[in-house]
Write a structure and sequence with these properties.
Oligomer: single chain
Distance between the termini: 66 Å
Number of strands: 6
Length: 237
């Protein structure tokens, strides 16, 4: 009996150039999550589905996260055609990806997002994926660079975007991620400020039921960890 491959190609239509394209996915039955970092960075046994979340049209160079590939306005399509497609050389991104190939794919997605001036929450999500890929490579300098880009855009998303829309990043998860990223980047006072805002929201009866218990428990643990780090730093000086 033939061995079932972990990855397979799925078909779609590029919303920019209307070409029939293929992109690679990981079979859900082979995905085995081992652990997750406090910023939601996942670790898998076998094929890592994160590597394949960046979908790229080989014909015109349009690229997006798999969850948003078909969502692009007419105005943004013109931007992609004028700025990216005009310089694009046809190439394929199907098949198994290495970390470096995944990084290249996500950076093309980030380029597209910057050109169409995408939602800050979407840019932040892409920057987080790039940071995680550098974490897998143990490249701390590049990881922190993209964590910082993610942090800047999550903060803008929190202040500028409607985070109540179902199916998208919610305000409480956004608060947590901002606190977590500040902590990872050594910005402890900022981390305490954002985590405190989340914890205070949970004490409000009107908001309490909207916040997942696992999220608030993790936030409280992180808050104490950051406070301990601040206290230790003060004692050392």
């Amino acid at each position: 009996m033939a061995e079932i491959k972990a990855v397979y190609n799925s078909k779609s239509v590029c919303p920019v150039c209307e070409s029939d394209i293929e992109y690679t996915k990981v079979r859900s039955k082979v995905i085995r999550l081992i652990k997750q970092d406090t910023d939601f960075c996942p670790y898998y046994e076998g094929e890592n589905p994160i590597f394949y979340e960046a979908v790229i049209c080989p014909e015109c160079g349009y690229a997006a996260h798999v969850t948003n590939f078909s969502s692009i306005s007419r105005y943004d399509k013109d931007k992609v055609r004028n700025i990216i497609t005009s310089k694009w050389q046809r190439r394929s991104f199907t098949g198994q990806r290495t970390i470096d190939q995944a990084l290249e794919a996500f950076k093309i997605v980030l380029l597209n997002q910057n050109i169409i001036e995408g939602l800050k929450s979407e840019i932040a999500k892409v920057c987080m994926r790039i940071a995680w890929l550098y974490r897998y490579k143990q490249d701390k300098t590049q990881e922190n660079k993209f964590l910082n880009h993610a942090l800047i855009n999550y903060k803008k998303a929190y202040s500028q975007e409607d985070l109540t829309e179902e199916g998208k990043l919610d305000e409480y998860t956004c608060l947590y991620i901002i606190g977590e990223l500040n902590k990872r980047l050594g910005l402890y006072e900022e981390s305490i400020k954002w985590l405190s805002r989340l914890i205070m929201s949970f004490s409000d009866p009107q908001q309490k039921d909207k916040i997942p218990k696992m999220l608030i428990e993790t936030a409280r643990d992180l808050y104490q960890e950051v406070r301990d780090a601040v206290a230790a730093a003060k004692e050392a000086t």
